[in-house]
Amino acid sequence: MILPPLELVKISWKPESLEPWVELVESTKKIEADVGRGDAYLKAEEKLLDVVRSRNFGVLPALLQKRVAVRALTQLWLDHSDVLKRLMSPRLLEIMVDAQQPRLGRVPLLNMLQLYFKEFDRLDRYSSENDDSLREVFEDLLVDQIQKVENLGEELTADDLISVVKQQGDWILKVDGPAQLVKLAIKNGMTLEDAFSKFGLKGFDSGRYADVCRAHYYIEKLHEIDEQEWSPVFDELLHHDVSKAPYGREGKRIGHAALEVLIDRVTEASEAWQDFMLSLAGDPRVSSRVKSYREWWAPLGEQRVEKVRGWFSKQDLRLFLQALEQYGEATGNSELKRMFPARRTFLEGLFRLKMIKSTRLMLGSKAEYSVRKILKNELKVNYIKLDGQLSDKAIIYLDCGDFHLIEGSHSFKLWVYLAPPSRKYVGYEVTSLSHFDLTQMVPKSYKKEYPSLEYTGIVHSPSTWQNKVFEFLSENGISLDVEALLSKQDYRRYVERFGLPVVRPAKRFVSRVSSESANNVGADYKESQSNADRDQSVLSPLAIQILLYLHRHPDSKARDISRHLGLPLKAINHVLHLDLKGYCIQVSNFNWINSGEGERELKNSGVLGDEE
């Protein structure tokens, strides 16, 4: 007998018919959540909540003698942030463990593991100034308690976190646990999700511990990203919680690690990479007292900071030229527009010749508005504000090693110096300057510091101003690649009209430390030296003495050198931070060591003698 095919029966449920089913589902969920929460549990929970409300903490030692109360407390830590804030401290953990001999129950242990992976480094927010790190206390407590659980099989059980921690707790429950987990995953070709599953963290991959794992994973990815482009990894690293996540055991953060990777990877960072660094850490060309510098740049070391400052010099130059060009276009100033190509070729030529060591951008309020308009209000570089009659000016200071320039827009002169102007006017701590400062005080202080050195202020007269620069420098023993600083057409005209400049014998060069710190250092160190000798050494005798001391006593403080040489600490710090920049390195404990360049300079000076 062949039966006819069954027809699907379609049932049309009225909305009111579904209401009991919804209620049943919700009721089932509530029952599931309340499993193990009998009257004793609920009473213990209420007593704990009453402690939070009344702040009657004295009843806790007796209350936590009961296992049901410990189970309720650990669950409340997970469910209520206010309870976690009020009832969490290293001392309370100690009381709880002492009351629950020989060990905590399995459910409280699992709750505490879950809390650890959920909060991780954020646990230290609940430590007072006098307490130990709560995270570290938590780690030690969990490892100790889990070791007291009866022996488990050797194989990892992915769904049993206690089993995993019992076997892997010596590294997984540490501040650098996320870093080790990521290295393990990468080494074995695993995704992070696979690693979470293998080590029993699958249900905890939305907590802080997992977030830090992902941050470490991003750091590894930084070794592979394109050097010229903005990477999606940057977007992740710019999240506050990611960049400030812990990295290693030296107090560094993920953001520090990211900066170190990028700085060490390239000789010259692209604009995209520079933009990321500025967005994350701010401009390093600020006073060392500024919070952003202390927080982000100081931990990277002086060598990395100097490298980045050099990169941002190009950014300053670009902004200066943009402001210059924008003004010519906006105002219809035909003279400025006509002069712009030559000034751009000259300044960019200095950069291409790698002569520019550092820069300092200065903007008047109107110039700042123009630059912000170009950058759509994303001006991140640090600059000096120009006051008064300089409101419409953009000015840039250029350290070119053998000479120094202060160049400005409009009718501002091009000032050429043979030694660095006082840091009082171009240092990173300077925030504002006036026309009087730049045109009167800078030259005046320069002549006081370097009485034997010349300077000049050059008006931008068409077709002659470059010649005045070249002639001034050549007369002082400084040779420039003229062809690289002029357009092809201007170069032909220049040679036809002036010929190539003849570099004369160098004049006497006075080391800045011997003039600026004359009162501190003493006459024995007031020596001058010719530019012809500077290829072998630009260092004063005092600088050589400091290098020699650090060669014999590495990792010393400035005050140790001061006592040894019998000179004021101010003079020693001046030489260390200025004349010996690049020759010495200030390490994390603020002590000093010689760099490789410093050791080479010391060797070339011949003072080591039999120490070689």
Summarize the structure.
By secondary structure, the chain is an alpha+beta fold.
Structural commentary:
With about 600 residues, the chain is α+β, with helices and mostly antiparallel strands. Helix content is about 55%, strand content about 10%. It is built from 30 helices and 13 strands. The strands form 4 sheets. A 7-stranded mixed sheet has the order 8-4-3-5-6-7-9. α18 (about 300-330) packs antiparallel against α19. The chain is elongated. Mean pLDDT is about 80; it is low at about 25-35, about 155-160 and about 510-535.
User: What fraction of residues sit in β-strands?
Assistant: 5-15%
Provide the structure class: alpha+beta
Number of helices: 30
Tell me the major beta sheet.
7 strands, mixed
Descriptive terms for the model:
alpha+beta; seven-stranded mixed beta sheet; 30 helices; two-stranded antiparallel ribbon; 612 residues
Secondary-structure map with pairings?
Elements (H helix, E strand, L loop, with lengths): L14 H19 L5 H16 L5 H4 L3 H13 L1 H6 L3 H10 L6 H14 L14 H14 L13 H12 L4 H11 L4 H7 L9 H14 L10 H6 L2 H4 L2 E2 L4 E2 H12 L5 H11 L9 H7 L4 H30 L2 H19 L5 E7 H10 L9 E3 L7 E6 L4 E5 L5 E4 L5 H4 L5 E2 L1 H15 L5 E4 L6 H11 L12 H11 L9 E3 L1 H5 L1 H4 L6 E3 L10 H12 L5 H8 L3 H11 L4 E3 L5 E3 L1 H10 L7
Parallel strand pairs: 3-4, 4-8
Antiparallel strand pairs: 1-2, 3-5, 5-6, 6-7, 7-9, 10-11, 12-13
Helix pairs in contact: 2-4, 4-7, 7-8, 10-12, 12-15, 18-19, 18-20, 27-30, 28-29
